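Exercise 7b. Backbone tokens:
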């Protein structure tokens, strides 16, 4: 059996866990969101995180959901298909104060989405590149009722697979969007009124 090497780490940027380091194991398709991108995203979200119920779909390293908890989110559900990746995340954070606000779920995103009925204030949607268009995943989340009215969804994709206004339903508006290197990041707001 191949050993799980910790090829790199991610660092929590701000909040109660500021400076804590999270080891990231080598796994196919796992590419943790870098510091610069996370800093931009969390500046965009600002005070909306306080008390928010969040979903980190395709959690991977867990950097997005952990950053949200560190900055005041009430809860985060981490959904990750790879048991070894999820086990590493749980082991690395088990002694962090306040980690009981996290719920860790080992499941395929499609299957989990189809059975979940909770609406979230903030959803982090960062699927492995090549796993489909983020706009398609966003539509599924909205159709399943997983984004509350007024909720935000963060989308991260390869820049050539990014979203544009024309790919979105009228109930979704792009609030912020930026290309950093080869990655496009967007923050969208879902509204039913």
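Sequence design result:
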């Amino acid at each position: 059996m191949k050993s799980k090497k910790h090829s790199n780490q991610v660092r929590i940027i701000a909040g109660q866990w500021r400076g804590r380091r999270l080891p990231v194991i080598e796994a196919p398709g796992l590419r943790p969101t870098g510091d610069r991108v996370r800093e931009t995203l969390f500046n965009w979200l600002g005070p909306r995180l306080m008390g928010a119920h969040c979903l980190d779909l395709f959690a991977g390293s867990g950097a997005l959901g952990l950053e949200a908890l560190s900055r005041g989110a009430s809860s985060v559900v981490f959904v990750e298909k790879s048991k070894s990746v999820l086990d590493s995340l749980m082991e690395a954070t088990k002694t962090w104060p306040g980690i009981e606000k996290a719920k860790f779920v080992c499941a395929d995103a499609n299957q989990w989405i189809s059975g979940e009925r909770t609406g979230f204030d903030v959803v982090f949607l960062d699927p492995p590149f090549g796993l489909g268009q983020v706009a398609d995943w966003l539509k599924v989340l909205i159709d399943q009722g997983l984004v509350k009215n007024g909720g935000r969804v963060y989308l991260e994709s390869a820049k050539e697979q990014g979203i544009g206004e024309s790919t979105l339903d009228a109930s979704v508006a792009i609030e912020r969007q930026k290309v950093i290197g080869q990655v496009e990041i967007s923050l969208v707001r879902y509204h039913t009124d």
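Instructor comment: The mean pLDDT is 87. The domain at 6-190 is CATH 3.40.50.150 (Rossmann fold).
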